[in-house]
Design goal:
about 140 residues, alpha+beta, six-stranded antiparallel beta sheet, about 40% helix, about 25% strand
Length: about 140
């Protein structure tokens, strides 16, 4: 009778091992499928979208920085971080980078007209400080 029990236990252990292996393979297949089907979000870097001439980029960014300074969102001594502008995801939206000795800022704004000397030509969309997050976000 003990031999019959041992043979039965062997069959049960074999079935349990098969079940564990198949379950593990199913789990791996689900993880692979989830990774492969995850939507990819394009990451924009400051060097992208540099089709705008440096002189025009500087004028755009100067106007955006002046608007952020007018609302006291960045210190008055903040300077532009370069002569490049990044195109935003929305038509007419531009993103510029500014900095002080202690902080870096990303300033996004919408261009409302062609004359950058007009007071309401630049409409701020967001101001983000590196390391701390959004200072201002228009809804």
């Amino acid at each position: 009778m003990t031999e019959a029990n041992i043979a039965g236990l062997r069959r049960e252990w074999l079935a349990a091992r098969i079940f564990v292996v198949l379950g593990g393979l199913l789990l791996v297949a689900i993880i692979v499928l989830a990774v492969l089907s995850a939507p990819s979000v394009p990451v924009q870097t400051p060097t992208q979208n540099t089709a705008i001439a440096p002189a025009m980029a500087r004028r755009l960014c100067t106007a955006g920085l002046a608007s952020a300074q007018a609302f006291a969102l960045v210190p008055a001594y903040t300077k532009l971080a370069g002569d490049f502008v990044q195109l935003g995801a929305v038509k007419g939206r531009y993103i510029c980078f500014a900095q002080t000795d202690a902080a870096r800022y990303q300033i996004a704004f919408d261009l409302m007209c062609r004359d950058l000397n007009r007071p309401n030509c630049v409409r701020l969309f967001s101001v983000v400080q590196d390391g701390t997050g959004a200072i201002y976000q228009r809804h």
